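Why does residue order matter? Because the sequence determines the fold. Keep that principle in mind as you read this record.
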Amino acid sequence: MTRAAMLAAVVSSPLLLSLAAPGPPTAPLETFDSLDAWQVDLTGHVAGSVEAQDGGAVIAARYDRDLDRAGHSRVTLTRTSDAPTDLSAFTGLRVRARIARPLGSPLWLHLLEAGGVRYRGQVVLKPALLGEWQEFPTRFDTDFSWDFESSPDANQKLDLGAITGLRLMLGLPEGADGQLEIDEITPYSDPPEPTTNLLWVKVEGGAIRLLPPDAQLPADTPLEVTVGKLEGLAQAELAWTAQDAWGRELGSGKAALVPNGEHSRPLRIVFPTPGYAQVDLRLLDGDKEARRQRLCLAALPEPGEADLTPREDSIFGIWPGGYGTWIKLGAKWARTYCQPWDFEPQPDGSYKYLRTDNDGNPLPFAPNLEAPLSYVCFFRGMPKWLSTQPDRTDYWKFPPTDWDAYGRFVTWYVNRMKDRVRVWETWNEPVPYAYWMGNMEEVIRLYEVTYRAVHEADPEAVVLGPCPYAIRLPFTEQFFEMGGGEWIDAVVVHAYMDRPDPNFLDDLAWLRDVMQRHGVERDLWVTEVGWDTMEHTELQQANHLVQTYALGLAEGVHTIIWHMNWDYDDRALRGGHGLLRHNHQPKPGLAAYATLIRFLEGAAFERYEGDEDAPARIILFRKHGRRIWVAWGREPGVVWRPPVAQWEVRDMMGAPLEPTNQGFFDLTDSPIYGFEVN
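Structure:
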């Protein structure tokens, strides 16, 4: 019996072959043996085909500038039914797919409800796994959000008990030419938490160790591993391996365990140099693995006193908090926000703080802005009592019913905070239909009202805008065309991009050209930039971070605030934008950022070495009279060394490097630092 016949024999549904009706599905939602029930659309500049082949959907698509159909450049597949399907018993959906050629775009999986309302979740396809069949999970509780393009008037949350269709969408960027194969979409549930053969690890000094300046290396990190409720294992062993961010082994070992008990085993992970270590612990029963746990560590020299001194001209920032570790590592800027819906106007012109504790007792208004950090504060949205759409769930995205009343609130709030906050963002990403549901004329009005209100409270304040979610958007140019530059003291953008070199340089050049054409000469700020570690490897995240800051410092960007510090909602540890995992263990990017701050805080840009299209990016800075080079390769096979008689070279974690190629250093995507030795 074929797979399709077997599935059809088990269950049947008007929506998808393998859904039971009624009740939750018990097999794959879709196996793509046929595309007869799917509506396929290629829009915008997309050329290509979508076909059913060998039991799967094959999407072959490329961006064609000569095509100019209506709509965004997308491939979409949609399947609907009048009969709803219940997915409420499941954790999420798992997509089995293979990337034959990367398309340069995530795959979006949409769940449809009656009336065309869509909720979209990103299926993160890792390009590093080209040609391999992989299962990519999406979670209902964290990955799906309302798609404003589906029904602007929707006022509801995802109802997993009433799903009436599926939609797959690929948006093609310019230059894309790839192929994606999708085999099936299957609901899944998280496995139950284990109750036996448990691993606990205690790390002396914590997962992030700060080494005093006179610390002697190699340094070791004592670990204590406890195996609890050891049952059912005939030949129990604890095995471990440790490696650095590039996969080079730092150590390994095994220890025998006695069954039916609880045992602690001390381990010592040696850091031969400052940096990052990943420790994989495995509980074995002979050759069989019973349990696995990963522990991530960082050992970093403390910055010097000069590098910890507060300075508002620093480029280095991070958010969201807490910031205790980053204060010790030398970050100078953080970001916070005001939620106007937390306040209610009073007859005397003041505002009552509405937040309460778990018992309903009023809380004092006491923002925790940790010293000595400097802060950028943005206004997060419109309160219900001012929104033109107070009955909608996204009421906070709408313009106010009374602009003067909104201005009075802003002035009151800035007065309360001006001793601690001097830099204000008018709004977070007010791109229409992103975090703003008004039109562009109302965007400009928002900036004018906020600018006047902030400066009424604090004439010395700095007001930032326009804050698009990516630099090169039509919104950005339209903002300046409509006179928005009059209502900001400095330009702020969010700089999400594919990769920093050359994208960041190209985008900054485009932005400065737009500003110049509209007579706007202002400092540039970036209050969000980052790469997640689902779609990118953790090493790629670290590489991109160092490149972004080195390029930003060279290009005169005032401050760059990395987004984000902590993967607060990534309980499954799949990989978010944070430099700290949900379990508060570091990623390589944390060690790379700490090293970057230590090496380049207070450094002045001198010049780029080499032309724009050179195979290596070499940037020369000077700090305390000493020349410092930051270098990385832009293509394979590039070598370099500092052009001075005496030098030392360190990797991006701060470890010393020795030349490997006749006195030269191999340059890769991981930046290295060259220091002049006087």
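The chain has four domains: 3-188, 198-301, 312-604, 606-676.
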